[in-house]
Amino acid sequence: MKRPIAVFDSGLGGLTVVAQLRRALPNDWFVYFGDTARVPYGCKSADTVKRFAIQAVEFLLQFEPKTIVAACNTASAMALETLQEVVDVPVVGVIEPGAKAAVQAANQRCIAVIGTEATINSQAYHRAIWQIDPQARIVAKACPLLVSMVEEGRQPTDAVVEMVVKEYLQGLKEHEPGVLLMGCTHYPLLREAFGKVMGPEVTLIDSACHTAKKVVEVSGEANTEKNAEGGTVRCYVSDNAERFATLGARFLNEPLGYVSYVPLDALIADPGGALGVMANAKEDPRHVGRGHWG
Length: 294
Description:
CATH topology of the largest domain: Rossmann fold
Distance between the termini: 16 Å
Shape: globular
Order of helices and strands: EHEHEHEHEHHEHHEHEHEHEHHE
CATH class of the largest domain: Alpha Beta
């Protein structure tokens, strides 16, 4: 079997990145870890996020991935450099690709950034944008309620969603930005609500599709070799596989056929016991589906 692309996130949101990766690399297969027992990462300290990210990557390394994607904006902001230092395979985050796309689309106009509290407070997007364009004007806003609204299944046309989005974005709109950078993997599901508030003159930037392009670059070129596992996504979660399988279909726009529960105590055990973690994941009665889909 070909080596997979491994993706991790604090929960469901990273599946929007997987969806874009599957479009860009249809002949590859993917393994995904969602840390649903400890979601959200967005309100946790940098040290805690780094520890969780390292544990997620240790789990994923047993699959011998050719590339690892930190699909979580918070983990990308706080742990990417650490991961790149300690892991032998390429590790790609979502910050730099989104920042690059925002600078290009803004065309020297103001760039508005929204994300979790941790992502915004880290100023990771500020640094990435200023590295590309030191003169860029940036306004940012933490939007902590939006992740839970998406995971509740609320639609962008929901009256509560529209009210909260307007409350968050109205101040940003006053700066007349050229782009709104959606700095959280959950936010593309609320794209319609953002567009309604910001208006058609503001370009919405989804880091997921630009991250997929970066992964293709890191891989050297798109994988054109046919693979029987092409398109397969195997998901592992640290809590509530059933809920993940149900809600995840919305993020991926199709049913999830393989979701396994990984006990948290096994996940945080010595990394040398990775095979034991895998065995627990397969044998646990909360495992959902053993097939795959493509």
